[in-house]
């Protein structure tokens, strides 16, 4: 029955889009996209996709988003300047939807192997953690460990076990813009407040030769002026030939796009980063870098690059060569190896505050519900609720479990609250003591401790 509904949806979409020119993608002529002169590939379509959503009133304007985000980024920067000793690594639960049409599992076709999917997760963790001894490491003084790690979901939306790889036969050979947005994503997405959705498919039609694109984050819609928008399309979608790394798994890849950096680039967008040249030809620099990527520590440049064979300097009146090695440029995969400190600030601000981003950091779907956590404490022995927190955070322990104390840390690892647990009143924490954002609480018992992540709205 479900497959029949999917087939009908595909037929209807095909009828509606019949005759649609493949020269247009997200309302823009493909000849006007940034196209790699060597390979003919379009590295990214996120900016064009975002502008189309804005035109269709499905996304707030750039100005609205940046005005909302700016004070939150500044708050993060101030905390970073305090050189906090303790750090909190944020974990993002991932589901990878492998979309195929009945092909056998293979790395020469769209139904890629589990090993190839896992190679991509390995690359993401190396890149976002600036991991020493890997291609994701750099010795640039402004290079940042974003302190984000990605884990494959272990619990599916119905509560059953999963390895985080969702293979779906949708009975379609190629995927164009209309089919992806109206069929593929809405019919396969897992709850985007609990899972970061990545789709892997074979693009075709107007998406032919595109490597991938992401849904940009949005503000919390304060004062009801805009958003938050419901979304059945939130996540990142990538052509299978740009997914995974041949450093670990062989198979078919696009030329020069074989180290997994398309996913790093697109997830950068999903977490609030813009292309470092600002998608314009200006060399104007101001204190907030609002003419470019809102990250003053990325040197000014007025165009994208596709390699790092030489040192480019497209804005010679400003300090520094173009940062071709930045993950948010268009360089080939072997070039890329840096996020900057200012880019980290933006990412953390988004993860703490943006709808469907902030809740990811407190999701528990990467945990085996029957596993033992930390120092011998079972997962259901201690719990916290509600999450997100609106007024109070409550700590609950099963009968017979003696709680000793707790400590609360913010997203940058600062201890913001600690307390001895002497009575029931100590099990209730007012949001007034914490403020808003992402937090971690460690609850100690006579036997050990347990860690939880939560959001205060």
From TrEMBL:
Recorded superkingdom: Bacteria
Keyword Phosphoprotein attributed: no
UniProt entry keywords in alphabetical sequence: Disulfide bond, Hydrolase, Metal-binding, Metalloprotease, Protease, Signal, Zinc
Signal peptide: 1-19
Segments forming domain Secretion system C-terminal sorting: 384-456
UniProt-recorded Gene Ontology molecular function terms: metal ion binding; metallopeptidase activity
InterPro entries xref list: MetalloPept_cat_dom_sf (IPR024079), Peptidase_M43 (IPR008754), Secre_tail (IPR026444)
Keyword Hydrolase part of the UniProt annotation: yes
GO terms classed as biological process: proteolysis
Annotated ranges, domain Peptidase M43 pregnancy-associated plasma-A: 188-351
Regions that span the bilayer: none
Pfam families: Peptidase_M43, Por_Secre_tail
Family membership: Belongs to the peptidase M43B family.
Protein name (database record): Peptidase M43 pregnancy-associated plasma-A domain-containing protein
Species assigned in the record: Chryseobacterium aquaticum
């Amino acid at each position: 029955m479900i497959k029949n509904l999917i087939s009908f949806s595909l037929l209807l979409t095909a009828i509606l889009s019949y005759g649609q020119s493949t020269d247009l993608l997200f309302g823009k002529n493909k000849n006007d996209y940034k196209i790699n002169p060597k390979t003919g590939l379009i590295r990214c379509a996120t900016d064009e996709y975002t502008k189309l959503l804005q035109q269709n009133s499905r996304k707030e304007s750039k100005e609205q988003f940046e005005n909302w985000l700016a004070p939150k980024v500044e708050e993060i920067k101030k905390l970073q300047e305090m050189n906090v000793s303790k750090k909190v690594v944020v974990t993002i639960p991932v589901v990878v939807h492998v979309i195929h049409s009945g092909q056998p599992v293979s790395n020469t076709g769209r139904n890629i192997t589990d090993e190839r999917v896992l190679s991509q997760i390995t690359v993401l963790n190396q890149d976002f953690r600036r991991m020493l001894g890997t291609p994701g490491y750099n010795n640039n003084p402004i290079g940042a460990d974003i302190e984000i790690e990605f884990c494959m979901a272990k619990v599916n939306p119905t509560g059953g076990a999963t390895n985080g790889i969702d293979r779906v036969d949708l009975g379609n050979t190629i995927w164009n813009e209309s089919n992806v947005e109206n069929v593929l994503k809405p019919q396969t997405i897992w709850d985007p407040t609990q899972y970061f959705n990545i789709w892997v498919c074979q693009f075709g039609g107007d998406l032919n030769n595109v490597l991938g694109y992401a849904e940009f984050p949005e503000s919390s819609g304060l004062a009801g002026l805009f958003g938050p928008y419901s979304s059945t399309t939130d996540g990142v979608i990538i052509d299978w030939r740009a997914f995974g790394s041949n450093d670990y798994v062989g198979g078919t890849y696009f030329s020069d796009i074989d180290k997994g950096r398309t996913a790093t680039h697109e997830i950068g967008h999903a977490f609030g980063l813009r292309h470092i040249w600002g998608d314009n030809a200006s060399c104007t620099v101001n204190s907030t870098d609002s003419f470019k990527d809102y990250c003053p520590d990325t040197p000014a440049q007025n165009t994208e690059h596709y390699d790092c064979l030489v040192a480019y300097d497209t804005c010679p009146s400003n300090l520094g060569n173009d940062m071709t090695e930045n993950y948010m440029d268009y360089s080939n995969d072997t070039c890329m190896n840096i996020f900057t400190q200012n880019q980290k600030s933006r990412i953390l601000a988004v993860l703490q505050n943006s709808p469907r981003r902030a809740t990811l950091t407190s999701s528990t779907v990467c945990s085996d519900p029957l596993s033992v956590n930390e120092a011998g404490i079972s997962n259901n022995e201690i719990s916290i609720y509600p999450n997100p927190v609106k007024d109070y955070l409550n700590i609950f322990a099963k009968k017979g479990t003696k709680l000793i104390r707790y400590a609360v840390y913010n997203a940058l690892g600062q201890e913001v609250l600690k307390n001895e647990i002497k009575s029931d009143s100590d099990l209730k924490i007012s949001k007034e003591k914490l403020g808003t954002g992402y937090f971690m609480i460690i609850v100690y018992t006579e036997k050990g401790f347990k860690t939880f992540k939560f959001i205060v709205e």
